[in-house]
Amino acid sequence: MKEFLERFFTPFRNIAKIPELRNRILYTLGLLAVFRFGSFIILPGIDSTELTRLFASGQGSGLLGLLDSFVGGAFARGSIFALGIMPYISASIIVQLLGTALPSIQKLQKEGDSGMKKINQLTRYLTILITAAQSAGYVVNLRSQYSTAIVADSGLFWLTTVFVLTAGTMFLVWLGERITERGIGNGVSLIIAIGIIADLPSALAGEFQTTPGLVFFFEILALAVVTMGVILLTTATRKIPVNYARRMVGSKMMGGTTTTNVRQYLPLKINASGVMPIIFAQAMMFLPTTIAQFFPDSDFWSATGSTFNDFTSVGYNIVFVALIIVFTYFYTAVAVNPRDMAEQLKRSGGFIPGIKPGNPTSEFIDATLTKITLPGALFLALIAVMPAIVARFGVSTQFAYFFGGTSLLIMIGVVLDTLQQIESYLLMRHYDGLMKSGRVRGRTQIGAAV
What we know:
It is built from 20 helices and six strands. By secondary structure, it is mostly helical.
């Protein structure tokens, strides 16, 4: 027991010995605490108690409940962070899609840091527009479904709600950027993950109270199996062996190694896009419901809004799966460039056995990536629709959101990435990693061997 406790607390002591890492972790925790505190600040003109009661009574089920899970209950409380950071995700999707079609944005992408600053600025401006539109939709939704929770003058309520919600989302964008720059990284993902984790204790408690003990045990067991599947999907790689030609570097002979004596390979992620396809697809799934709120008298938009507001409906899940597959291929194409990888191999004197350097290597990597992306996308889609599947078997909606889907993928992906960031700091300071055997593998180790 003593040895186990020693091994458990050693990484924490090592973290405390590194001032930079310790300060980054404390800075990140401080900003995340600001986010959680802000999620309890209520919008002017809203009776939060009444809104929470109506939401809990069943009027906030479906897609609205999923959105609420992303922001840690801020949507149901009528908080200034009710829309969370999802408008920024939507703006990023649009900018990335435009980057594949508009030469001007493609030019900015090739200009390095200066180009990325302009793209980020464009994304922020677009976030403001999207947030303003979604804020107006939020007001329409409040008036149509939660009118008794509004206690302010209608005209002034429109103006203040749109302004405050837009300011709240932009403040979260600023928090995410600060965490990325001065914290432990992955600021936007951490904000989403903390919002999701905040609802986990209440979801577990609610399911435990309403479910027989044996059934609850099997639910937890199934959740553990799904969690292991998500970790497997997140860390799985296709290893392509790489050899290096012998060359003189100074007075030493370098290269000439093979995979028989030194493990050198090019790792291609089975799911190179990580959780982003689900986030992108989920953000797109909000659009039909948002648009439908502006046309309450239209039969078509009423039916569309009802379908996309029910995450267990067949139509919703068919569109959801299709978007996930499309975005998986799209984001993989954006994140992994086979031509650049082939050029880097060629410059370093590396080659894939049996494949000529240059274009043949690029085509081989591209073909391999295409083959492994399809099963990765299908597995990703299966995990994404798991909440709808388990909800059909009687699992409560609040707990079903953690049964796979976006919530579990984001939590596991962010946890792995964060642990990998912390471990990299420990290893750079010549400390042991977080584990005695092996290393933490996050979602960002794409092409690291090159």
